[in-house]
Amino acid sequence: MKKYGVLNRLETISSAMFIPVIIIVWWWYGAKNGTLNTNLIAGPDELKKCFTDMWQDGSLQRYLLASTGRVLKGFAIGSSLGFIVGTLDGLLPPVRKLLAAVIGILRPIPPISLIPFLILWMGIGESSKLTIIAIGAFWAVLLNTIQGFQETDPKLLELAKAFGKSKIEILFRIILPSAIPSVFTGLRLGISHAWTAVVTAEMIAASSGVGYMIQIARELVRPDMLLLGIICIACIGLIIDLVMTLILKKIVYWRA
Fold it and tell me: Cβ distance 140 to 195 under 8 Å?
């Protein structure tokens, strides 16, 4: 059984890596034979040199740490508020009725569209960026938390009431365990949205971070720095998603 499990895992990994490997090979070959315009898309040699220079002078680490710190702070604020409001909405029908119209009106507004307003209101400091990140995380956690509480099996609730279980016991032994998978799905989506939001906010108004790095690369016409910034965004986003998936599997162990 272990042999088949390892083979299936290797097959899954090889299938997932097929298209990325093709793209990398095409990129490398095109840069070497001149079919790829390196003035628009940096080749492997230029990218390697840019990475080495920025890593040695410490600028790349500063950009990455600035963005990561903002994401963690904004995500902590947004996800906490999303979980609290989602729990109240999911458990209390009066709150659900009160918030239904507000959620329906505000949810479709993209966080990015609020950046000019927040800059006017809060300035270009950290407050406006953290607010955008918090909003990006808030909606994903809120909606998935509400969904998790609403998906509790009614038969389990009826059975618990028939056995005379108290409301506290029903909450902690039935409702919360049923909602946890959706809550963590919301957290996974929320931190991805937070990472997207911080990069966008930094491109518009910042003096540090990966988004600021991309903006500087555009102004200096540095395709190597621009490509490095995009790769950093992709890699950090992938790492965040993998970490959240592993945490989800460990905590919600009863779900496949």
Answer: no
Provide the token pair at 96. Answer: 């659900």
Residue ranges of the chain whose pLDDT lies below 70: 1-13, 253-256
Residues 48-67 as b or e (16 or more Cβ within 10 Å = b): eebbeebeeeeebeebbebb
What pLDDT is recorded for position 5? 54
Backbone φ, ψ for residue 254 (5° rounding) = -85, -5
Can you state the angle between helices 59-91 and 176-204, rounded to 10 degrees? Answer: 140
Q: Is 75 exposed, middle or buried (0-12, 13-18, 19+ CB in 10 A)?
A: buried
Q: In terms of C-beta density within 10 A (0-12 exposed, 13-18 middle, 19 or more buried), how is residue 187 classed?
A: buried
153-162 pLDDT, tens digit per residue, is 777 777 777 7
Distance CA 139, CA 228 (A): 30
Task: Give the torsion through C-alpha atoms of 87, 91, 94, 99, to 10 deg.
Answer: 30
- For residue 185, what are the CA distances in angstroms to 140, 173, 213, 234? 9, 20, 30, 20
What is the structure's pLDDT at 8?
Answer: 64
Residues near 107 by beta carbon (within 8 Å), at least 6 away in sequence:
139, 143
Q: Which domains does the chain have, with CATH numbers?
A: 72-251 (1.10.3720.10)
Residue of 98, 67, 106 lying closest to 208 (CA atoms): 67
